[in-house]
Amino acid sequence: MRIFGLGMQELLVILLVCLLIFGVAKLPEIGRALGRTIKEFKKSMKEINSEEDEEKK
Prior knowledge:
By secondary structure, the protein is mainly α. Helix content is 79%, strand content 0%.
């Protein structure tokens, strides 16, 4: 399984480094914030695309 060109071993190393840097308590907060950021980004991209489509008509 490859995610973003990274294998399972690389993902585990990244997770361990994050655990060491941020601690267990902060990881869920960071995940939520990242999820909200991605959601807002997708929403704004859809709005931009719909505005471009309206301008073409």
